[in-house]
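lol forgot to send this yesterday, sorry. struct tokens for the thing we talked abt
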């Protein structure tokens, strides 16, 4: 397997250090997904928090969960939110984004998400349905979400780099 980019938690310490209390579950098969949804009384249309572990496994948690709690403080290959749907072909992901201000993973993390879903036999759209572009401000260190190709820091208004620039693991 090719070496994938790992992402380290880049959010505030107080969130990382808060007690987990998150009901997260590794999804190895669609049976895992079904039992997690039943246990959570999860509405299938509702977004869930997800991460992909460094071992390449999909792990989900209720949407209110912090990604770092879902990851138990560890590095990840991907982080974001997704919704699931059921069709005659089985379970599939209907919407998926890399939205996670805790990990700020680049949209380039998609192949790790696809591989984890393929492994669990869960269908997917083949790409993020919504991509979030994260940049760290080199001037003030603020985590930014870039909107409408405006590479300007929302906090200090200094320019943001064109390439993903969080600390690499
Ligand atoms: Zn700034």
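and heres what i got for the seq, position by position
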């Amino acid at each position: 397997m090719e070496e994938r980019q790992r992402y380290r938690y880049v959010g505030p310490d107080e969130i990382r250090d808060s007690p987990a209390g998150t009901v997260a579950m590794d999804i190895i098969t669609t049976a895992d997904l079904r039992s997690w949804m039943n246990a959570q009384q999860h509405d299938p249309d509702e977004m869930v928090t997800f991460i992909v572990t460094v071992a390449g496994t999909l792990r989900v948690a209720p949407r209110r969960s912090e990604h770092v709690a879902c990851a138990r403080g560890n590095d990840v290959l991907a982080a974001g939110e997704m919704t699931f749907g059921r069709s005659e072909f089985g379970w599939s992901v209907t919407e998926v984004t890399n939205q996670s201000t805790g990990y700020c993973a680049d949209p380039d993390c998609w192949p790790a998400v696809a591989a984890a879903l393929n492994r669990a036999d869960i269908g997917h759209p083949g790409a993020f349905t919504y991509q979030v572009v994260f940049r760290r401000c080199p001037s003030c260190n603020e985590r930014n979400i870039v909107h409408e190709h405006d590479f300007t820091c929302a906090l200090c208004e200094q320019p943001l780099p064109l390439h993903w620039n969080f600390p690499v693991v």
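The pocket of zinc ion is lined by residues 137, 139-140, 142, 153, 155-156, 158 (CB under 6 Å). anyway ping me if u want another try
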